[in-house]
């Protein structure tokens, strides 16, 4: 069994921890850029099973990570629901805005399996080409997906989605429930297609105060994890409530996931004591992605060694605090791998 799976399921500690990185299949790799340059639309790449599989496998061939994460995007769920999604060059994703209960009636809630079949095909193709490497499937979490759908894209302050949740909680609750059920179905189908592990990304959880975090992040995530554990009890689940700081405590207390990914703002010794030792959750993280992209070799080495030393006596998954950035030099990634594999 793969080292990552043993860490998650058996809580096994390895002298060399399993390592993979968020967004490891992507724009920092020249082989990815070559494929992307020949595909007009980003979603076309996500929905091309052969190309999505090829992109997923590129970092495995180059670096030999302990896990492959299927190439896709969190916004395929809104797309499957019938929300217009497009990726504008130099601007990012743009979505048709959802703003009222009447908009929810037009959502195609039974469309997940059929519309996202290419994603499941990509998983099956990739699984057939992997030996001992684990395969990860992922989804955005309800709050983050709702944020994109109400804001119409990314946002600096997420004012529109926060106002919607406060002014019309009935509408917002309906939207969150639709997304929750869609995510359960989506990740379950990913597991059936070959995913060994699934991960939930709540990229914008940090904008919420504790009471709203409970309602819009913790409660829906709890439901997703619980339902997936009933359907697939042997499939590990990683959760990433990015940026929630001390609220990681309440998240870990309530949600019975197998691992929690730490962003780079989380102090490592605090996380080790309060999350791992108190709640028994496996930790994943949390090398600063900006340091990896722009730091000196000496600075990167110092931080990697600090992470390895901090978590040397407990089960741990080495990763970044967020997705790898396009300007990241290949040699910096190679340095991290060398340090994790040899220094450990």
How would you characterize this protein structure?
With 344 residues, the protein is of the alpha/beta class. Helices cover 52% and strands 12% of the residues. It has 17 helices and 9 strands. The strands form 2 sheets. It has a 7-stranded parallel beta sheet, sandwiched between helices. Strands 2-3 form a two-stranded antiparallel sheet. The longest helix has 25 residues, at 169-193. The chain is globular and about 60 Å long. The model has no long low-confidence stretch (mean pLDDT 96).
Helices, strands, pairings?
Blueprint: H1 3-10, H2 30-36, H3 42-46, H4 49-63, E1 67-69, H5 76-80, E2 85-88, E3 92-95, H6 101-104, H7 112-115, H8 117-129, E4 134-140, H9 142-151, H10 159-167, H11 169-193, E5 197-202, H12 210-231, E6 237-241, H13 248-254, E7 259-261, H14 268-279, E8 282-287, H15 289-294, H16 297-310, E9 316-320, H17 330-343
Parallel strand pairs: 1-4, 4-5, 5-6, 6-7, 7-8, 8-9
Antiparallel strand pairs: 2-3
Helix pairs in contact: 4-8, 9-10, 9-11, 10-11, 11-12, 16-17
Order of helices and strands: HHHHEHEEHHHEHHHEHEHEHEHHEH
Annotated CATH architecture: Alpha-Beta Barrel
Give the distance, in angstroms, between the N- and C-terminal Cα atoms: 21 Å
Which percent bin holds the helix content?
A: 40-55%
CATH fold-level name: TIM Barrel
Provide mean pLDDT, rounded.
Answer: 96
* Alpha-carbon Rg, integer: 19 Å
DSSP summary: helix tally: 17
Summarize this, please?
The protein is of the alpha/beta class and about 350 residues long.
Name the features.
344 residues; 7-stranded parallel sheet; 52% helix; alpha/beta
């Amino acid at each position: 069994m793969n080292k990552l799976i043993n860490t998650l399921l058996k809580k096994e500690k390895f002298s060399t921890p399993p390592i993979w990185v968020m967004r490891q299949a992507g724009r920092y790799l020249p082989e990815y850029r070559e494929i992307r340059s020949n595909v007009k639309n980003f979603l076309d790449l996500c929905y091309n099973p052969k190309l999505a599989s090829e992109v997923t496998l590129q970092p495995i061939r180059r670096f030999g990570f302990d896990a492959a994460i299927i190439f896709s995007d969190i916004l395929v769920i809104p797309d499957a629901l019938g929300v217009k999604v497009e990726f504008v060059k130099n601007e990012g994703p743009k979505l048709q805005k959802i703003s009222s209960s009447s908009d929810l009636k037009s959502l195609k809630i039974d469309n997940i399996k059929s519309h996202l079949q290419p994603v499941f095909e990509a998983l099956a193709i990739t699984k057939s080409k992997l030996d001992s490497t684990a395969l990860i499937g992922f989804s955005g979490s309800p709050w983050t997906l709702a944020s994109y759908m109400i804001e119409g894209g990314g946002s600096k302050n997420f004012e529109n989605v926060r106002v919607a949740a406060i002014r019309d909680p009935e509408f917002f609750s309906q939207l969150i429930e639709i997304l929750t059920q869609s995510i359960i179905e989506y990740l379950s189908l990913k597991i059936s297609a070959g995913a060994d592990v699934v991960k939930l990304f709540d990229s914008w959880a940090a904008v919420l105060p504790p009471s709203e975090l409970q309602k819009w992040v913790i409660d829906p995530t709890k439901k997703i994890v619980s339902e997936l554990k009933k359907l697939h009890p042997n499939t590990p689940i990683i959760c990433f409530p990015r940026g929630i700081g001390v609220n990681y405590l309440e998240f870990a207390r309530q949600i019975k996931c197998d691992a929690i990914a730490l962003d780079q703002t989380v102090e490592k010794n605090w996380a080790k004591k309060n999350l791992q030792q108190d709640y028994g959750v496996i930790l994943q993280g949390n090398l600063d992605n900006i340091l990896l992209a722009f730091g000196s070799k000496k600075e990167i080495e110092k931080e990697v060694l600090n992470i390895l030393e901090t978590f040397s006596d407990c089960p741990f998954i080495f990763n970044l605090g967020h997705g790898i950035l396009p300007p990241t030099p290949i040699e910096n990634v190679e340095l991290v791998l060398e340090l994790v594999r040899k220094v450990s």
